[in-house]
Amino acid sequence: MPRITIPHSWISKLSKENQLIELNNTVRCTIKKSDIHGIGVFTLRRIKEGERCYCTPEIEPKFYNIPYASLSKLLPEIRELIVARWASVVNGSVFQSPNADQSLLMFMNHQRFPNCNYDVMTDTSLRDIEKGEEVTEDYCFMENATKVYPWLVCDEGH
Prior knowledge:
CATH topology: Beta-clip-like
Oligomer: single chain
CATH architecture: Beta Complex
Helix content: 10-25%
């Protein structure tokens, strides 16, 4: 499998060790089958109230250049996501963070406030979210939400 060719400016400027630290600190969620609807966003670890969830997409792509043997320094669930999505990493390929190789926010399901646990405006948790719990937003916070989601019932002004 050939290596990916990307602009040099997209490769992380951090040291290999700091790339590992960044991934371990920022990869907090993944997508999987949801009991609410289809696919949803789920936590890989506990996220405390007010902490960033890293579900909003990064505007500028960022790739990591970490040797395959060093991936063992990542949390096992993060390493598993990277290897599953970027198999060519075994051959020295660069890869994106699991936060960036799909837009987690696009898979987020709806729950009405106060049952939702995610603030889309700040990319933070509204309350403690336990490991393995689905992350949900209140679609009603979006202006004209019922035009996009006709099944949605929102209160006046919300």
